């Protein structure tokens, strides 16, 4: 019996780099759908859970890539992705014609560059960021925004379907997936700042912010962000689920994309200023729902601070 | 038997002014809950349907107010409300201590003035605008944002409950209800312009706007407005459900409220400019989803128009 001589019938091997809070769940879902997953993470502590879920631990990035038809990256940022692919030698270790699937959130311009380098080495590339968080990863309910040519999309679709239930083919060119994720953040950031603007305006007229959040969660004024962050927005010192500075960064990526495409994004620009104002108060690490503090600060009674 | 001598056991009489597409449904729900409703509309055509629903037709505004414990106004705008209450003599015709319930959408500052005039004549006043449209009116599923003192709120709550299933007591002072409705429109306008900004940015990178709307309707980027208007936004010449100029006006009311309260609303300000841009293209009467045209116009290829 020669396992490697029957690729058509054998399950496909997937190298999986980045077994963090989301990646470990995504890898588990691949294993349970019958894919052979060879995983690696710089944190050795990820190994036990991964092997219990049916994966095979690799000793290095190169080891995970060797003999894998697909290499899936769920690393923290674009710097780690470049490290894995090029400096650590994953692309060179992949068989010719294998496919790199980049699922980490990265700026579109840098994804384009990575894709060009991967293609120059004779491997396929799929730009496929996700949204849905740990809960979506655990339930195989991620939204996946894939950009690649049609043939490659057909090839990777069974893999993506194992991790997400809303798999979109958003375009043919690498970078388009990353841009859709960027635009997702444009809307999230504007919606969250707008909720702060709404609550602060009402508060100035003596209306209880909790009543406003309650009403707007159920009316035509609702947004996913308002419903998700509303309770924290009207709390005094809420637990941090995502920091103010993350939106300063994400909206910066939006503005960079707009600059590159020569497409003005005035609402995103204003929203970023509001998050930046809170960061400028020295509060960049508090919960992003506290963008409302930028509005409150603008109208705070200045009498107390006058000499 | 003297009907009028047993007010405690007799059903309360409500004068209802404005039996249009929403008012007629609201009045029907009051009748079916056992209230005696005496209705009036300047369009005599409303009479047949109203009487079939169990109402009593009044011959004038004054007639509707006479012997009514409550006078409910569901007219088109604040000008009509003032006409009904003061020029047409409804307040004077109401019994002493009766309650005026203003449910039309009006600017907060003008509602405050009306409330003061009504109080000066010894009648109670409730500022209670609604959201939910004709569908909400028909199903008694309106959101109602009532501002008045606690005692008056207890008095009118059974009436409001007959028309809406989300009845909020938003504050003690007339004008606060109107302001909540105004802030609702702040969020709607910003969310709709943001959806246009998102779709236009994606389109500049060659991403199909229909795919973007599909993704963002299901992701953390979703808003009620994006889901409601998304399909129309990516259509070429959609049916008008609400015109661009309505948002120019509504966001103008938001900015006026901010000026009066000295509370900056930068996102609403930018959003208004985008609707105004489409109005400036001569398209103020097209569907409000077409705010995306302001973004498209900013990045349209200018080559064709050069000499």
UniProtKB/TrEMBL annotation, chains A, B:
Annotated ranges, domain 3-hydroxyisobutyrate dehydrogenase-like NAD-binding: 175-295
Record domain 6-phosphogluconate dehydrogenase NADP-binding: where: 13-171
Keyword set, alphabetical order: NAD, Oxidoreductase
Pfam families: NAD_binding_11 (PF14833), NAD_binding_2 (PF03446)
Parts of the chain that traverse the membrane: none
PROSITE patterns: 3_HYDROXYISOBUT_DH
Descriptive protein name: NAD(P)-dependent oxidoreductase
């Amino acid at each position: 019996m020669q396992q490697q001589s029957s690729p058509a019938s054998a399950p496909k091997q997937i190298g999986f780099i980045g077994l963090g809070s989301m990646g470990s769940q995504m890898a588990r879902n691949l294993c349970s759908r019958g894919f052979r997953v060879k995983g690696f993470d710089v944190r050795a502590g990820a190994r036990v859970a991964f092997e219990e879920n049916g994966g095979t631990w690799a000793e290095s990035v190169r080891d995970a890539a060797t003999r894998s038809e697909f290499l899936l990256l769920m690393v923290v940022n674009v710097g780690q992705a470049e490290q894995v692919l090029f400096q650590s030698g994953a692309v060179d270790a992949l068989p010719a014609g294998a496919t790199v699937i980049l699922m980490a959130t990265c700026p579109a311009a840098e994804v384009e560059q990575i894709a060009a380098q991967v293609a120059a080495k004779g491997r396929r590339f799929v730009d496929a960021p996700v949204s849905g968080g740990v809960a979506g990863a655990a339930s195989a309910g991620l939204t996946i925004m894939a950009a690649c040519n049609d043939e490659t999309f057909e090839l990777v679709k069974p893999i993506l379907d194992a991790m997400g239930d809303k798999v979109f083919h958003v375009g043919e060119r690498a970078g388009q997936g990353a841009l859709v994720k960027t635009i997702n953040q444009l809307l999230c950031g504007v919606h969250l700042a707008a909720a702060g603007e709404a609550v602060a305006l009402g508060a100035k007229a003596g209306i209880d912010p909790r009543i406003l959040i309650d009403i707007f969660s159920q009316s035509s004024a609702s947004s996913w962000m308002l419903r998700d962050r509303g309770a924290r927005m009207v709390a005094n010192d809420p637990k941090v689920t995502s920091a103010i500075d993350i939106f300063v960064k994400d909206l910066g990526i939006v503005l960079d994309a707009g600059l590159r495409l020569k497409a003005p994004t005035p609402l995103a620009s204003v929203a970023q200023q509001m998050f930046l104002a809170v960061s400028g108060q020295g509060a960049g690490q508090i919960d992003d729902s506290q963008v409302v503090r930028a509005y409150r600060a603008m109208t705070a009674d200045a009498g107390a601070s006058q000499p």
